[in-house]
Design brief:
Immunoglobulin-like, 4-stranded antiparallel beta sheet, elongated, 3-stranded antiparallel beta sheet
Length: 191
């Protein structure tokens, strides 16, 4: 799809809520356009948050995030949505997290459990990292220093205060104790 200069200018005005004139677009089309703009704001926010957090590390975050988000888009234009289960925040060589997430609706805690991993690219002192995204507030939270290792087999993580009572998507990953390598992120679901 290509847009003319006029259409591009119109989109920019819409995005800044500065458009005051009449439009040839019908209300249904305007609603679809607003949904598309909102979707891309989410995508760009996720890209920016991931990039800002990991840019000081030797991680190829930018290209990985763009490829991941492109694969996660579902639907047909203009009714696009994001399949969070296909979003991969990290890519790496370590063995990824393989376990379960438990959440009690009356609790602000998430429980995770996993069995011992004996694969070649895993060490018992690999550290667990938690990543959370709230589509409603468009906030991304990453905690790389949970103090939990692969050897622990179980952990409880408090839900960030700003995410309570909202839809939140969760990913987990491991990083090596020397912080030089990481695993692919694993989507744990939403609550």
């Amino acid at each position: 799809m290509s847009l003319t200069k006029r259409e591009l200018g119109f989109l920019r005005l819409l995005d800044r809520d500065q458009y005051t004139g009449t439009s040839i677009l019908q209300p249904e089309q305007l609603d679809k356009l607003r949904k598309i703009i909102d979707l891309f704001e989410i995508i760009f926010y996720l890209l920016k948050a991931c990039y800002e957090y990991f840019k000081k590390r030797k991680v190829n975050t930018g290209r990985v995030a763009i490829k991941s988000l492109a694969a996660a888009l579902k639907g047909k234009f203009p009714d696009l949505s994001l399949d969070f289960s296909k979003v991969s925040i990290l890519k790496g060589a370590l063995t990824p997290y393989c376990g379960a997430m438990y959440h009690d609706k009356n609790s602000d805690k998430l429980n995770f459990s996993w069995s011992a991993c004996t694969q070649r690219n895993s060490n018992q002192n690999d550290e667990l990292m938690g990543m959370f995204y709230c589509p409603e507030s468009r906030e991304f939270w990453c905690e790389p220093n949970l103090g939990i290792t692969r050897a622990d087999g179980f952990c409880t993580i408090d839900v960030p205060v700003e995410f309570r009572d909202r839809e939140v998507h969760v990913w987990l990953a491991y990083r090596s104790a020397d912080q030089q390598s990481q695993s692919n992120s694993t989507y744990m679901g939403n609550f």
